[in-house]
Amino acid sequence: MARAGRPIVVFDSGEGGLTLLRQAWTLYPGEEYIYICDTAHFPYGQRPLAEVRTFFLGVLRYALTLDPKAVVIACNTATAAALDTAREASGGVPVVGVVEPGILAAVRATENRRIGVLTTVATHRSGIYQQGLKAAEARAVVWQRPCPLLVVLAENGRVTGPESRAAVARCVEGMLAEDVDTLILGCTHFPHMQAIFAEVVGNRAHLIDPGLETAKILPRYVGGLTREGSGTVSLFTTGDPGRVAQVGRQLWEHLVMQPEQLAWEGGEVVWRR
Ligand code: DGL
Hints:
alpha/beta, Rossmann fold, 2 domains, seven-stranded mixed sheet, four-stranded parallel sheet, 11 strands, binds D-glutamic acid
């Protein structure tokens, strides 16, 4: 594949990481972005962390063949499972995770130090938010709740309407009753439902989008990001390119390109021309 510059690879299990990609594109439109989703193994959030780590490291090995200037794990679950290992395996290429920027933003935003975190089941089990929030703010009181239904709804493009609104309300009600004043959307699929969250939560809590917070601090990890110009976005999926294109376009009208096909072969990701 002939390319002019070094790309920024953005990764998720599915369409969730598009929420981060859209923010990065808005902030640094001159960059060349390659979005890789391991849709063949979606959802990561229902899998053991060790399995998620194995999948992500396979994707990382493929991503490194693209000579990226950075790899952004736009997936809380893969960040929880594999960030440290990925940094050791990346040969010096910066690997950026979404959890820490979300934690730091939440700690800045909270006034009563009562913080809620919505995640996948695997992120919940990992304890990464609980531990990170306590490390950043020892007096924080943290409520966590896995919301796997929201992941599936967003992955299928169902980000508006009564069913999704009711699902969001079920996830946040208990936390709001505990008087949390800050709510972390700890799965990159959830900000696709930002409008519903804003409506349901209103002014009762600050909503923190770790993907947005990560995009904002990307220059700390990657030098020379261009804030102007016209870059590119390419999509790659290990799943069905037609479905990824259709839902992707629905979630972000900018995504008019046809995704490239990747496949898993013997534990490695390969590009199918
Ligand atoms: N979007 C991902 C996250 O931030 C994972 C969703 C999934 O595959 O379960 O955790």
